[in-house]
Specification:
Elements lengths: L1 H11 L8 H57 L4 H20 L1 H5 L4 H8 L11 H14 L5 H28 L5 H32 L1
């Protein structure tokens, strides 16, 4: 063993006096001792580093596994229901009913954008803004419910699409008001818009009743 370490030390240049045994023997022994101590320290540090990485990886893995059930529970609790969508749907209905009652006041200035802001087709403040998302969400809940009849599912789908078409119809008439200079034409467009609004409110009332009875 001593001969092997001596040869290894000489090969690494740790004992430059290896060929002069009479004068350099003690120096070479000291170099060999330092080499062995250095190798021992390196091995110890390597083992400590590996152990630390293993422990850290185990802890992080355990934390990740512990979080999965909690996330799953949170997802279940946050699953949408009809009551998730009803507030906006009902607010949209109330908005159209109020517009119906105040139609003459809102259109007396012959400015179509006044009505269009209420419809949610201009600006983002109306409850009717992006109402399609709530309609579709509510219909999906109804469609997936084991208690809903095929007739109810089909009727809800028919109603909400007809309401969206009705809102678009009112919007088109009032949008057109802004692109004509003739007062009689403006008044006719406004009249057409009111007719479209009346039929839309009627369908909307039926939809709200169906959804509330299913909630």
């Amino acid at each position: 063993m001593f001969g092997f370490v001596t040869g290894f030390s000489s090969a690494l240049g740790l004992c430059p006096l290896a060929n002069h045994r009479a004068s350099g023997k003690s120096t070479c022994v000291q170099s060999e001792s330092r080499l062995i101590m250095s190798l021992d320290k390196t091995e110890t540090l390597s083992r400590f580093s590996c152990s630390r990485r293993y422990i850290l990886g185990s802890v992080l893995g355990a934390v990740s596994l512990a979080l999965v059930p909690l996330n799953a529970v949170a997802a279940v609790k946050e699953a949408p229901t009809l009551n998730t969508y009803l507030p906006q749907i009902e607010a949209g209905f109330d908005t159209l009913v109020d517009l119906q009652k105040t139609w003459n006041e809102k259109t007396e200035g012959l400015d179509g954008d006044v009505v269009r802001r209420i419809l949610g087709t201009v600006g983002v403040k109306s409850p009717l803004f992006k109402i399609r998302k709530s309609f579709e969400g509510a219909w999906k809940i109804i469609a997936e419910s084991p208690d809903a009849s095929e007739e109810t599912i089909e009727r809800v789908n028919e109603l909400y699409n007809s309401i969206l078409d009705g809102i678009s119809g009112v919007d088109f008439q009032l949008y057109s008001v802004n692109f004509t200079e003739l007062r009689p034409t403006k008044e006719k467009l406004i009249e057409n818009g009111k007719q479209a609004l009346d039929s839309t409110v009627e369908m909307y009332a039926e939809l709200v009743k169906l959804l509330k009875s299913s909630a």
